[in-house]
Write a structure and sequence with these properties.
- The structure holds two protein chains of two kinds.
- By secondary structure, chain A is an all-alpha fold.
- In chain A, 80% of the residues lie in helices and 0% in strands.
- The mean pLDDT of chain A is 93.
- In chain B, 77% of the residues lie in helices and 0% in strands.
- Chain B is mainly α.
- The chains are: A mainly alpha, B mainly alpha.
- At the A-B interface, α1, α2, α3 and α4 of A face α1, α2, α3 and α5 of B.
């Protein structure tokens, strides 16, 4: 029997689900609401310093990558829930977008 | 042999409250995905320099962006709650009551959020 790739994508979905459950509310509130309303002292200098430090790079990469793998994996299953027949090509597309977004994030962080 | 497949309509979930809440939770994935792309755009703009980064911040202050993030916040909080609510069923059996696992998750969210907000807003 061909080995299933399900455990890999389910692990990424689970890791992203856990990370977004733990830090998602605080993160969305901070960057999406408090920051534009002037409540966060996040200037270019502070953001740049954070993205240049090793911990910051890993943190930014994990948030972007795992949120994408979580969200797009669940979206793939939601397409099925909406009564649309899902195909292996659609599965590859959803996971491919997550992989591509992760690769772009990694590239930007490495070259920053 | 051809077996009967019951046809599924795209609106089955509107039938009762339990299904509607399920789809409400599933909707969180769209917002979490878009949010990740907003952060990715911010990272890209950060690499372009101070002016580009400030432009990204200015775009976040638009009414559309604020509305998006308010809805995203509500959905992510709901995702977070459901994530830990079903945890006793999604993780290997532990010799502790189900309620303790859910409570542990909720306490973890509060602790992580407090630590994060303390650092970010302080």
């Amino acid at each position: 029997m061909k080995r299933s790739n399900k455990p890999i994508f389910w692990s990424l979905f689970g890791a992203g689900g856990m990370l977004s459950a733990l830090i998602g509310p605080a993160l969305v509130f901070t960057t999406g609401i408090a920051l534009p309303l002037g409540g966060v002292p996040l200037g270019y200098e502070r953001a740049h310093a954070f993205a240049q430090n090793g911990f910051g790079k890993v943190a930014i990469f994990l948030v972007i990558s795992l949120f994408l793998f979580h969200g797009l994996h669940r979206m793939y299953h939601s397409v099925h829930d909406l009564g649309i027949h899902v195909t292996p090509a659609m599965k590859a597309l959803f996971h491919g977008i997550a992989a591509l977004g992760s690769a772009v994030a990694a590239y930007l962080l490495v070259t920053l | 042999m051809k077996t009967y497949t019951r046809p599924v309509t795209g609106t089955w979930w509107t039938r009762n409250g339990f299904y509607r809440w399920y789809m409400f939770r599933e909707l969180s994935c769209v917002f979490i995905t878009l949010y990740a792309f907003i952060l990715l755009a911010g990272l890209y703009r950060l690499g372009q320099g101070p002016e580009a980064f400030l432009a990204w911040q200015a775009a976040l202050a638009s009414p559309a962006s604020l509305a998006f993030h308010v809805v995203a916040l509500v959905l992510v909080i709901y995702h977070s709650w459901t994530w830990f609510k079903i945890m006793p069923k999604t993780m290997p059996r532990l010799p502790v009551p189900d309620g303790a696992i859910v409570a542990g998750g909720v306490i973890a969210v509060i602790a992580v959020s407090a630590a994060f907000l303390w650092t970010a807003l302080g």
